[in-house]
Amino acid sequence: MNKKTHKVMIIGSGPAGLTAAIYASRSGLEPIVFDGMQPGGQLTTTTEVENYPGFENGINGPEMMEIFRKQAMKFGTKMLFEMITKVDFSEKPFKLWASDKLYQTESVIIATGASARYLGLESETKLKGYGVSACATCDGFFYKDKDIIVVGGGDSALEEALYLTKFGKKVTIIHRRDNFRGSKILADRCKKHPKIEIQWDSVVDEVLGEQDMAGVIGANIKNVKTNKITKIPCSGFFVAIGHQPNSAVFKEFIETDEKGYIKTKNKSSFTNIEGIFACGDIQDNYYQQAVTSAGSGAMAAIDVEKWLAKNE
Ligand code: NAP
Questions:
Q1: Residues 234 and 151 placed together within one structural domain of the fold
Q2: Ligand 1 binding pocket, CB closer than 6 Å
Q3: Spacing, Cα 151 to ligand 1 middle (Å)
Q4: Is 188 one of the annotated active-site residues of the chain?
Q5: Does 128 lie in the same domain as 170?
Q6: For 35-67, how does the pLDDT look when each residue is reduced to its tens digit (9 = 90+)?
Q7: Angle at Cα 27 formed by Cα 24 and Cα 31, nearest 5°?
Q8: Distance between CA 298 and CA 307 in Å, rounded?
Q9: How far apart, in whole angstroms, are the C-alpha atoms of residue 281 and residue 287?
Q10: What is the pTM of this model?
């Protein structure tokens, strides 16, 4: 058992967690960051980030997170490639478990973000890893000169569709309404792109294929206005319909909204438990930007520092 009680432990290593780590380490709090399932967070599954201030020519998502990580480590942050599987926030010091390894800490910053959602179709689940994916950056390469479907109408779907045109012969966006939720600039690029076709008012009825070499071979797409089902051939089927917060491990102790996003108090990072703070997408169902996540990471570190000073 590790009996040392740390000052602050940060769960999650996306822009929020790593910014909190930069601030906390510069304040001498010697933070420990648990990397989690996806070190670097969601940005490691995106391509070009064009809207993060300071990178005039854009920057590749994974590269940006590597810079964040190095900056945090430069000031003494310790990174652990571990996943927190259980917590006990009922008394101080707080307890965190990474499998059977126990850690104790005076405060915690939760920055576990959100993960990609799937449609929930049986055929989709069956073909995950056989052509069904939620990460164009990870899997786009496999669909060189092939037909690809992207489901969704938000920025993620638009960005993924544009990225996938680098590989695919044709990219069909399936969107359930007749206009995009995503930003105008990305929507315009998709509408004008010669390789992109858009199926409006359409939902996926079934993903077609088998768990063999061929994998996905197409999808039955239903027009919600006419109820007509059309088979669209494809080899890659990408789902980009938003995210769900990674808050399950904390739910016994931490208050969330009905979707599972952690509730923070009065625009701060304070949660319902004194000493437990939250930042980034895990507590933000609205802005969900790298830059807003990073900003809330800074807020969490400042809140922790002040809270520790007051409670010492
Ligand atoms: P989002 O904005 O919530 O969009 C999800 C899309 O999926 C919506 O168009 C939604 O349709 C559709 N959808 C949801 N559930 C569905 C279902 N069961 N079946 C079919 N379609 C479904 O999620 P996101 O695109 O992941 O973006 C999340 C946040 O990150 C946003 O704030 C976005 O601006 C940001 N983001 C920014 C960038 C960028 O700036 N470069 C890139 C990626 C993400 P409806 O429109 O009908 O609801």
A1: yes
A2: 51, 119, 151-157, 159, 176-177, 181, 203, 240-243, 288
A3: 10
A4: no
A5: yes
A6: 998 899 988 877 778 889 999 999 999 999 999
A7: 35
A8: 14
A9: 8
A10: 0.80
